[in-house]
Amino acid sequence: MTNTERKVLSHLFAGLSMADIAALYHRSIKTISAHKCNSMRKLGVDNDADLFLRLRRDVALADNAFTD
């Protein structure tokens, strides 16, 4: 996954809208959507619900790695 794709997912997980992220990076909503879609494909998820479950799980795993 590219650095930009990771940033987009991070912002989405933090609650920003696609429009907010597009404005933040001075890109179109279509460009941000493409980054999100590419990320979803690479993660093997098909919908937003599965994407957020995957992100939540990965964040929990990362948090546990630093506390163990």
From TrEMBL:
The keyword DNA-binding applies. CDD domains: LuxR_C_like (cd06170). Residues 1-59 form the HTH luxR-type domain. The keyword DNA-binding applies. GO terms for biological process: regulation of DNA-templated transcription. GO terms for molecular function: DNA binding. It comes from the Bacteria. Keywords: DNA-binding. InterPro entries: Sig_transdc_resp-reg_C-effctor, Tscrpt_reg_LuxR_C, WH-like_DNA-bd_sf. This is Transcriptional activator protein BglJ. It comes from Serratia fonticola. The gene is bglJ.
